[in-house]
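Example A, followed by Example B.
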Amino acid sequence: MNSTVESDLPATPEPAPPPFSFALLLADVGRFLSFRQPSPALLQHWPESLGFGLAVTWLAGVGRYWDNPRAELWQLAGLGSVAYVLVLSLLLWLLIAPLRPQHWSFRNVLLFVTLTSPPALLYAIPVERFTSMDTAAALNAGFLAVVAVWRLALYAVFLQRVGQLSAFAVVIGTLLPMALIVFTLTVLNLEHVVFDLMSGVRDSERSPNDTAYVVVLVTTVLAFYASPFLLLGYIGGIYHAWLQRH
């Protein structure tokens, strides 16, 4: 009797999320970037969170190329960075989906990718204005390394916490996209000067980003040789996920 009465009662409505707060959003982004758990408001107000991430992505794109004489108009306008996060999010969403992660949606992946943009604001620091060319090149290479490692670490944590993947799947899911992205960007020669470094660069053509381009080249070579092993691990991870499901 009691069960019948209880089943007829209306379900208790879920409490409404708290109103959007920009200060709370900044606090959540700070927690996210420092590998801590953000509050539920980050997802409850996901349109505002995504808008913030896209705005920072655009600013980072503008800052990345504003003093680069080799940059094209679309790069100076920051459009390349916005397009990049959209394509990257789609790639990660499709590539990791066969590993059967939890809570895996394009919205969540896009939100994650855009919120990793603040570290890229380091690229906007005009170090060549107050240092020598060699020092500026070394600093830009350092910025590239810091941002890349920071983002990869955040991505690995995202796969483990949100996707709830195994340690092996996290390693494969982290390194395989990186290898594919680095190799593809270099083959497309999006930085214009990457392959010129292989044959030498004249002093008149030097820029503070040249050392960073060398880092990209070295990473590309490593990615090329690691790709077959990562692909084998990826296939094994897909098979393991299929076995668990069936």
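Example B, a separate protein, is given below in the same form.
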Amino acid sequence: MTRTLHVTIGTQADRSDTEDRLAAIDAGEPVEPARSTLSVESLETFGRIFRPTNLGLLEAITTHEPESIRELARTVDRHPPEVLDNINELANYGLVELVEEGRSKRPVVWYDEINVDMSLGQSSSDTDAATV
């Protein structure tokens, strides 16, 4: 089964049904899992988060399932402190989970696909206002 992370750029995640979902859970009713969404405020932020270096780390984690940051660094042929900086950034956005195992931290990615939703251009109301 494919586990997809949805990323939106420049829009807030739709949480309009949150109250209804919580009420249904409290009432013991079955609830369909919500779509996992990361909302990124700008294209610039998206570009920073999903730059080639970070995408390479995400791919290495899903492909090799390293037991530690050090092992991940060896896999991608980079220095561990640099990899740790990138992994901490990804973890801050919820893209990587760090599971403590003894003295090391194992990077884990729960999804195997990323779907990006991005609007191009202006909205129709902006276009109408600009028309002379």
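On Example B: Helices lie at 18-26, 43-49, 52-64, 69-76, 80-92, 124-130.
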